[in-house]
Amino acid sequence: MLAVLSPGQGSQKPGFLTPWLDLTGSEARLRWWSALAGVDLVHLGTKADAEEIKDTARTQPLLVAAALLAAEHLPMYDVAVTAGHSVGELGAAALAGVLPAEAAITLAGVRGREMAAACALEPTGMAAVLGGDPDEVLAAIEAHGLYPANRNGAGQVVAAGAVAGLEKLAAEPPAKTRVIQLQVAGAFHTPYMAPAEAALAGVAAGITAADPARILLSNLDGSAVNHGREMVQRLVRQVTAPVRWDLCMRTLADLGVTGVIELPPAGTLAGLVKRELKASAAPEIVTLNTPDDLPAARDLIARHSGLRGHEPVIQFRVVVSPAAGTFEPAAELAEGADLRTGQVIGHIATRQGPVEVTAHDSGLLTEWLAHHDDPVAPGQPLARIGGQH
Questions:
Q1: Residue 189 designated active-site
Q2: pTM for the full model?
Q3: d(Cα 2, Cα 243) in Å, to the nearest integer?
Q4: Helices assigned H by DSSP within 245-349
Q5: Is there a catalytic annotation at residue 218?
Q6: Which of these, 18, 108, 74, 87, lies nearest to 260 by C-alpha position?
Q7: CA–CA separation, 218 vs 225, rounded Å?
Q8: Which of 6, 34, 86, 218 is an active site residue?
Q9: pLDDT lower than 70: segments of the chain
């Protein structure tokens, strides 16, 4: 099984899009997306220096555009899983079929502008806490009035909040940790971003979202999201909610992902996956940074998709598990039953309580793919509705 990952803010490098503009149609596509995003993506990806592309309002649409531009040159129909880190989730949602590319770029432009504006309201920032006991690290972050904005796995938690609190954390770090101040505009993924979340929600409400055509993981809790409208709501909520990339990587392991491609600017997520999954069966990884990396990426897809060039087996009419736990199908439903969109067909018993499983299409319950008390992983197929398209 193969996953394609879309990186987030901080991964950008000056000139990283320059080689992609040699591909036919790439510059025109970026100019069209620039009109939607409200920034010059061609300039930002080729001529702009590090300081200019560090600006949140510019960086976010640039990263989403880069991921989508590169993915156009991959056989995405053979990819089973997509996920993105922070703003990278917009790219992942587009690649999963939830959003048109134009909607993802437009939302990235709004998100970047509004988060930059929220950062200007009061002095806030972020710091990476490396190493230490995870519980002690989280306790120290809370004790200083800060928030765990990113939990990236591999011994890395990013604290965010008021500058004074970050300075105290750096002065009194938890045992066996290093605290590194990050060069960012403010406290992303915390309540400080509430004005940006509200602004993004107002725009996102007008989007018509489709249900994902492949497994799409959410930063909110690492679960697979079945419904397009729910994913849009999660994308909005993520502006103030912590990024749980650690849980996304756990789901990649639970799914048995054997191959990973990170879209440009690649390297950060690949490194986290490599460190986090080294104890289990480590996936084969390709970092896609220039068109010269495309042959290796296409070869990885051919060898790890398991689909032999045909349409993916995970389609709109297969209901997948939203969480890890044990499956309890609805007692009154038998194969052959008529289902309506949104109908509850069972639930997943998790440590945090039951999570509903709903049909995201109407039709016949053709086949149960999991049964009473079966242990299931996020993204695992549970039922087939009306056969395959």
A1: yes
A2: 0.80
A3: 22
A4: 245-255, 268-276, 294-304
A5: no
A6: 74
A7: 7
A8: 86
A9: 279-280, 306-317, 387-389
